[in-house]
Amino acid sequence: MQTNQAKDVRAVLVRHARRAAQLDGSSTIEAEHVLLGLAELEGSTTARLLAEAGLSRDEIKAALDREWEQSLAVAGVRIEVGQLPTPSPDPARRPRIGESAMRSLKRAMDNASALGGGRIGAAHMLLGVLDAKLGRVARALDLAGIDRAALRARVATAAEQGDH
């Protein structure tokens, strides 16, 4: 159990999600980077719940790649992610928080308030990501066959117990 939930938020957004965005070559931290960051919180309940649902970092990345391929196909572009040049990570780049990450953070704050305690922990952040009805993460999880409602219920229980 994490004792400093505020530190969790910083670790996810500033360290892990930013690193995921940098590796992705992205100029913004988006919800998919937050999800990848949550999966990297070693020893956390949140990462364990993701892994139990079939969402390790590699599995999340594969689901995001499938979503990208499908989105391109809808636009008439048939290509596999593996055929694209790999992004050039720039450790000096400081991605800013993007719109989907901001919306996830807002939902995380709402969940923290609704579930008691008020402080935002990693489980609240995962709830904020899972609660998105639209967007890249929602499409990727659906394509991967993830039961978001069941995962959300397990994460909400952990959040209510203060186990992040």
UniProtKB/TrEMBL annotation:
* Coiled-coil segments: none
> Keywords of this protein's UniProt record, alphabetized?
Repeat
Note the superkingdom of the native organism: Bacteria
InterPro entries from the UniProt entry: Clp_N_dom_sf, Clp_R_N
PROSITE patterns in UniProt: CLP_R
Clp R domain boundaries:
3-163
Stored SUPFAM superfamilies:
Double Clp-N motif (SSF81923)
Say if the entry is tagged with keyword Methyltransferase. no
What's the protein here called?
Answer: ClpA/ClpB-like protein
Give the organism, scientific name.
Kribbella caucasensis
